[in-house]
Design goal:
378 residues; alpha/beta; Rossmann fold; 2 domains; seven-stranded parallel β-sheet; elongated
């Protein structure tokens, strides 16, 4: 059987099987995954919703068979965590399968893998692999090899993730790629763009690692040089109040705060020429693709939050700038983009939108559902 989307006929035969979906928290971009799994299985979601809004995420109510609130505690040291109820419920219920995030610092992951092996419950783990670790230490290598060996499948966020695990000796038969993506409810097609918009869209949390101050400095530099450029900041986080206070009188900044409505984000994006995540980016670049906004990201891919910035090819689906150059290099990249003909911007935006469509055909939820279905059949 191939790992392709499950057909409706087979979906009806799976409807009474219980699948556990384990996440540290439920973010908006995982709702499509839960919705798709729930059309095929009885899904129990295990996640922690404590203080989710204060961390810059919206509180989501997934449509699943049951939502299990799980506390997350530290064991022995700050580095080792335990997600409550996961192990006990696997032992008690013996679900048809478990789909769980691949954070090796969670003792609950290891307990789930051991319970799955002992009880014959297939455990599918989903993660980034070691793409951020070109030369992983022995302990990290041993952990990943053991986790892959105990799992039924390791689902990699990207091809780079898969290659990183193959390099440390994980068997390719256990590894499968489901390109990490998200599906937005309101996209902006390339025909809605003219390539002359004045805006740059920042979309994400104003957190450590976002490097948003570098982007603010770069935009203000271009504005002082006479370029018609405005930075739209969509997001909230621990740095927002301080940054707004420092840059309160800047005519080139518009602070939108936390917005979770895709229609509203799409409306703001129509005034923007590109998107930019100057720090360590992740899925926000896929959202920008869906808005026909070529993303501008830094060039050190192994330092990003996730492997998704590898989808950004310079002057093909977006742009890259040299991270080590700081605000000066980012300003130079913005100026280069602002000097491109509108037709070139539109063409790059069209390829970015095409990449979004490719990443969602099928959707991540459909890919994961097929992988889980395959794990059950085996």
């Amino acid at each position: 059987m191939s790992d392709t989307p499950v057909t409706l006929g087979r979906a009806s035969s799976r409807a009474k099987l219980t699948v556990f979906y384990v996440q540290p928290l439920v973010t908006r971009y995982r709702i499509e995954v839960i919705d798709t799994l729930s059309r095929l299985f009885k899904v129990r979601v295990f996640a922690n919703s404590t203080e989710i809004e204060s961390r810059g995420f919206s509180r989501e109510a997934p449509a699943c068979d049951e939502f299990v609130e799980t506390g997350i505690t530290h064991i022995f040291t700050r580095r080792i965590k335990l997600q409550a109820r996961v192990f006990g419920e696997i032992v008690r219920v013996r679900p048809a399968a478990v789909l769980i995030f691949a954070d090796m610092s969670y003792l609950s992951l290891w307990l789930a893998l051991l319970a799955g092996r002992a009880l014959g419950v297939p455990v599918v783990i989903h993660g980034q692999g070691l793409y951020r670790h070109a030369r992983p230490r022995l302990a990290r290598t041993v952990c990943y090899r053991a986790a892959v060996a105990l799992s039924r499948r390791y689902v990699c966020y990207s091809e780079a993730s898969r290659l990183s695990l193959e390099r440390i000796g994980c068997p390719s038969s256990k590894l499968i790629v489901a390109d990490n993506s998200l599906r937005v409810t309101r996209t902006v097609s390339p025909v809605e763009k003219n390539g002359k918009e004045q805006g740059v869209l920042f979309l994400g949390r104003l957190r450590d690692g976002s490097n948003v101050e570098c982007l603010i400095e770069a935009v203000e530099l271009l504005h002082r040089k006479g370029h018609d450029i405005v930075l739209h900041l969509v997001g909230d986080g621990e740095h927002r109040e301080r940054l707004q206070r420092i840059h309160a009188n800047s005519p080139s900044l518009i602070w939108h705060g936390a917005i979770f409505d895709d229609d509203e984000i799409a409306s703001i994006s129509r005034t923007c020429r590109i998107g930019c995540y100057p720090g360590d980016a992740g899925l926000s670049v896929v959202h920008m693709f869906g808005l026909s906004l070529p993303p501008l990201v830094h060039d050190q891919l192994e330092l990003h939050m996730g492997p998704e910035p590898e989808y950004v090819e310079d002057e093909t689906t977006g742009f890259r700038y040299p991270r080590e150059g700081g605000a000066g290099a980012l300003a130079a990249a913005l100026e280069r983009i602002w000097n491109l003909p509108p037709a070139s911007i539109r063409a790059i935006g069209a390829r970015a939108f095409s990449k979004y469509q490719q990443l969602n055909s099928p959707t991540l939820g459909q890919r994961l559902a097929a992988i889980v279905d395959n794990a059950i059949e085996r």
